[in-house]
Write a structure and sequence with these properties.
alpha/beta; 16 helices; about 425 residues
Length: about 425
């Protein structure tokens, strides 16, 4: 087709600009992903010196809280420098009793109107500020987690380097249970390296992932927590950045999270995350775009893309549907990729995106048996985000917090044998 004959199809006025924008976004994520193939920033090594309060919010977690507390009590960090606190939040089971039996410091909270992890953390931080013993930072874990023995030593290094908000590597506790846990684990592994480590390498701000995160107490005292959305972790890291506090990444500090066993469980969990992200998109996207242009700061432009992700997912889904119709049934817009991409470059970008899961397994020495599930199941899992985000984007975001049942009660030693 001659260039002068282009832009005559019914949807060209929409789809031509959309393809240009898609190309820019694709180049951005391609550069970001390539940046994650290396690990060239490392913190300095410091002797253990930071005092840390480990906080575990737990709602009806008696099945998994014991192994986690045992794990936390035996971390390779001086015992006088950290304590383990469990928030038994609106519990109707034996969570508090089990946590006390395993030597945790337990605080019981009952509030029928303010439900959820964000409210529980805000309540606990207020208690922590008034304790006689003072801490330099808090480390937050979910009740179903297990934690690498060296976790606090790695976080101590980052804290001593002056970092104030730090996210650790979120690994999978049960990646080999089902195809779904494998796909869920793989999505986290890819994000850990191709998004989180990449941003750390480039000097951008990372984002908190809900568990395995460390926050300096002086930051919490200064700006408060104030994050009670369904994605309170992301909300805090975004609001902190607007106040001048970047989130950094600790690729060496691993926490192991239990992944849902069934598609229904995974759907509900991801729907909750999507609703929280959409709420942040509605409340913060214009502010981030405004600040990015006002300050001309690339870190804010990058984070604006994180905030805009719900809109990007919706647009990608619609573009895919229209593109399928255009390719297989009737031409309704003009494909312009051949005119704006050099030959084979788009194919190269697409191929690398497919290869990322395999590269990540090799580079981070992850469980290789996951490969048998990787391709089809992983793509199914990834593309299922589109209907989840679509339903969330046009729905009510302030819904009642829902609890995900955790049942995978294994120790850190047993988990090592299962990987």
């Amino acid at each position: 087709m001659e260039f002068k004959e282009m832009f005559s199809m019914p949807l060209d006025v929409i789809m031509v600009p959309a393809q240009i924008i898609l190309s820019i976004v694709a180049v951005y994520f391609f550069i970001l992903g390539i940046s994650g193939l290396f690990h060239f920033r490392h913190p300095k090594s410091h002797k253990p010196q930071k005092t840390i309060a480990i906080i575990v919010p737990a709602h009806n977690e008696e099945m998994v809280i014991g192994p986690l507390v045992d794990n936390l009590m035996s971390l390779n960090y001086p015992k006088e420098l950290y304590d383990v606190f469990v928030i038994a939040d609106n519990c109707t089971d034996g969570t508090a009793k089990v946590a006390r039996q395993h030597q945790a410091l337990v605080y019981e909270r009952f509030n029928e109107t303010e439900k959820g992890k964000g409210y529980a953390l805000e309540w606990m931080f207020a208690k922590l500020f008034n304790l006689q013993k003072k801490y330099d930072a808090v480390a937050i874990f979910d009740a179903d987690n297990l934690v690498d023995p060296e976790f606090l030593r790695h976080m101590n290094n980052h804290l001593c380097d002056g970092n104030k908000i730090i996210q650790g590597y979120i690994d999978a506790k049960n990646p080999l249970d089902t195809w779904l846990t494998a796909a869920f684990a793989m999505s986290f592994w890819v994000a850990n390296r191709m998004l989180q480590l990449a941003r750390y390498n480039l000097g951008f701000s990372n984002y908190l992932g809900g568990t395995g995160m460390v926050i300096s107490l002086d930051v919490l005292r200064e700006i408060g927590w104030g994050s009670t959305s369904l994605t309170e972790d992301l909300e805090f890291s975004l609001r902190a950045l607007l106040k001048g506090y970047k989130t950094t990444w600790a690729h060496e500090a691993r926490v192991y999270d239990e992944k849902p066993l069934t598609f229904k469980q995974a759907w509900h969990q991801r729907k909750r995350w999507a609703l929280g992200h959409v709420e942040l998109f509605r409340s913060l996207s214009l502010e981030f775009i405004k600040e990015a242009f006002h300050q001309r700061e690339i870190i804010l432009f990058d984070t604006a893309i994180v905030v805009l992700q719900p809109l990007l997912v919706i647009c990608m889904g619609l573009f895919s549907i229209v593109g399928l119709i255009n390719a297989c049934f009737i031409e309704i817009y003009t494909p312009i990729f051949p005119y704006i991409w050099p030959p084979m470059v788009w194919e190269l970008v697409s191929t690398l995106q497919i290869l990322y899961p395999f590269l990540v397994i090799w580079m981070d020495d992850l469980p290789r048996p996951v490969i048998k599930w990787t391709f089809i199941h992983y793509l199914l899992f990834v593309y299922s985000w589109i209907p989840i985000m679509f339903l969330s984007f046009f729905g009510k975001t302030r819904v009642e917090w829902s609890h995900t049942l955790h049942t995978r009660s294994i120790s850190i030693a047993e988990m090592g044998r299962h990987r």
